[in-house]
Design brief:
nucleotide-binding; alpha/beta; Aspartate_kinase_CS; binds adenosine-5'-diphosphate; globular; transit peptide; 15 helices; binds aspartyl phosphate; AsparK_Bifunc_asparK/hSer_DH; 574 residues
Length: 574
């Protein structure tokens, strides 16, 4: 039978008293008071009252506290099987940070155990934890849904991806020693849903969101059950019931302002009533009109984490990945990519927007608004310092921060037939895109022409199919001569705007040496980003050459920069 321990307060020589602190353990434990958050004076004794088995092999230690007013916070470390578990009584500020673990950090039972150990190895933190779906579950669910549309009701149960998802989650609960019932009902519902899709022969965006939500709903339930079995109090939350209110843009919903107070109220209230580490589903929300489950776009758990960080005004948002932080380029394109130690919110947002998979494009917004530092860390290598993202950073020595590649982009050259004046021309072109609901990425304009790119794989918008492209061209041809150029790539250089001339000089030198023609160039209003459009076939080679030149050759070492440009301020006038 699980032993439970309720430590009901702290007796002090003076009037000091800490309000109820509840500690549970299902194994014999040793309890040490870790710290008391107000000033420490004399010696006192932790005492237990009322219910619970705080006896036998569990021992108390004399502790030092001395808060005359009786406020403050008790924290204790329970030691058992080398796992350290930390509890707090919630007096004072409830939570210190958000810890978000992505699918890559949660691929198996073993990884879940490691994540629990990692999470509990920060005794000074009281985290809110956000989890994504295990491993590649979201992709598998989407493929299962597509297959269900055409496989027939009688074959829906046999869909390979459904079997994969079932097997992964059942194996994980078995290996973690938690009850199968934690996921069995959800797996049953998932199978029923796929049969429903097969019967209807259609997969709407709304159904897609409901379908993928099973991933996060299962991973969080398994993790909470596991934490409870090792004696850690944790509570599962589905974001759509926690207060995440979104637009009804299924597969790409926006978080509404009402979310912040709702989430704060619920998490705070529950903690005060019954402290337990909150484990929240990433990626999910509830549409404000439909009341249905929505998702925040692929990789949306990062946004869940920063939203909670802002809602609770926390000290830090930690995003745990499978890489040593934000890197100088995508490591799958160039293995010599290196971690970037420090980024601003603007740099990180630009990097994510232009396609670096490592962060969700919208995720920096709440962190920036709340001015809460974001730390990107590696759950496979927690010692690595990772990347710290803050409002400002010292840009004196910064030249280029990161190179981002987005492939398979469509480009349009639009030249006015001069039927409209200059102002009319630009506005007409953009209204055509607006009417068709197509987002434009990179733009370069002159008086009578516009070059721009459309992104067919944009994560948060629908796919551009050929028919739609033909329609765009048809509309534009009413006012312009249009040239559609497919299979292009955008290479985005995220860096120090104060050094744009130096960056461009170097870029053109590298591209010329590699015989690459740049088809379009654009510097965003944020000045953090310079984008170059090249052919898809040349893009990866370009990125490698640029990476070598900016990060590996030593040409831009700090000494050289100091000697050539002082502290960079010489460029600010440009
Ligand atoms: N500039 C970059 N820095 C770091 N990782 C990048 C970058 N560009 C692409 N990636 C890819 O992003 C992956 C991490 O993001 P993601 O898969 O969303 O993690 P998680 O699922 O854990 O949230 C890395 O494994 C890496 O392959
Ligand atoms: N599971 C969702 C949400 C998410 O954020 O995942 P990850 O943290 O693994 O990128 C997805 O795959 O899009």
């Amino acid at each position: 039978m699980a032993a439970s321990l309720h430590a009901h307060g702290v007796e002090t020589p003076g009037r000091g008293f800490v309000r109820e602190s509840k500690l549970w353990s299902n194994v014999p434990i040793t309890l040490h008071l870790l710290r008391f958050s107000t000033s420490i004076a004399s010696s006192s004794r932790l005492f237990c009252a009322g219910s619970g088995n705080f006896s036998g092999r569990a021992t108390t230690k004399l502790v030092k506290i001395g808060d005359k007013k009786g406020g403050g916070r008790v924290e204790a470390v329970l030691k058992e099987d080398k796992i350290e578990k930390r509890f707090s009584d919630g007096n004072g500020k409830d939570f210190t940070c958000v810890m978000k673990f992505g699918g890559s950090s949660l691929a198996s039972a073993e990884r879940m155990r490691e994540i629990a150990t990692l999470m509990l190895s920060f005794p000074e933190e009281r985290p809110v934890v956000v989890l994504s779906a295990m491993g590649k579950t979201t992709n598998k669910l989407l493929v299962a849904g597509e297959k269900a549309v055409s496989c027939g009701v009688s074959n829906a149960s046999e869909i390979e991806e459904l079997s994969f998802v079932k097997e992964l989650h059942l194996r994980t609960v078995n290996e973690l020693g938690v009850d199968r019932s934690v996921v069995s009902a959800l797996l049953e519902q998932l199978e029923q849903l796929l049969k429903g899709i097969a019967m209807m022969k259609e997969l709407t965006l709304r159904t897609k969101d409901y379908l993928v939500s099973f991933g996060e709903c299962m991973s969080t339930r398994i993790f909470v059950a596991y934490l409870n079995t090792i004696g850690v109090r944790a509570r599962q939350y589905d974001a759509f019931d926690l207060g995440f209110i979104t637009t009804d843009d299924f597969t790409n919903a926006d978080i509404l302002e009402a979310t912040y107070p709702a989430v704060a109220k619920r998490l705070h209230g529950d903690w005060v009533n019954d402290p337990a580490i909150p484990i929240v589903t990433g990626f999910l929300g509830k549409g404000w009109k439909s009341g249905a489950i929505t998702t925040l776009g692929r990789g949306g758990s990062d946004l869940t984490a920063t939203t909670i960080g802002k809602a609770l005004g926390l000290q830090e948002i930690q995003v745990w990945k499978d890489v040593d932080g934000v890197l100088t380029c995508d490591p799958s394109i160039h293995p010599c990519a290196e971690p970037v130690p420090h980024l601003t919110f603007d740099e990180a947002a630009e990097l994510a927007y232009f396609g670096a998979q490592v962060l969700h494009p919208q995720s920096m917004r709440p962190a920036r608004e709340g001015n809460i530092p974001v730390r990107v860390k590696n759950s496979y290598n927690p010692q690595a310092p990772g990347t710290l993202i803050t409002k400002t950073r010292d840009m004196d020595k910064a030249v280029l921060t990161s190179i981002v590649l987005k492939q398979n982009v469509t480009m349009l050259d639009i030249v006015s037939t001069r039927m409209l004046g200059q102002v009319g021309f630009l506005s007409k072109v953009f209204s055509i895109f607006e009417d068709l609901g197509i987002s434009v990425d990179v733009v370069a304009t002159s008086e009578v022409s516009i070059s721009l790119t459309l992104d067919p794989s944009k994560l948060w918008s629908r796919e551009l199919i050929q028919q739609e492209l033909d329609h765009v061209v048809e509309e534009l041809e009413k006012i312009a001569v249009v040239n559609l150029l497919q299979h292009r790539s955008i290479i985005s250089l995220i860096g120090n705007a104060q050094r744009s001339s130096l960056i461009l000089e170097k870029v053109f030198h590298v591209l010329q040496a590699n015989g690459v023609n740049v088809q379009m160039i654009s510097q965003g209003a944020s000045k953090v980003n310079i984008s170059l459009i090249v052919n898809d076939t040349e893009a990866e080679q370009c990125v490698k050459a640029l990476h070598y030149s900016f990060f590996e050759s030593g040409d831009l070492s700090e000494q050289i920069l100091d000697a050539e440009f002082g502290n960079g301020s010489a460029f600010s006038a440009i």
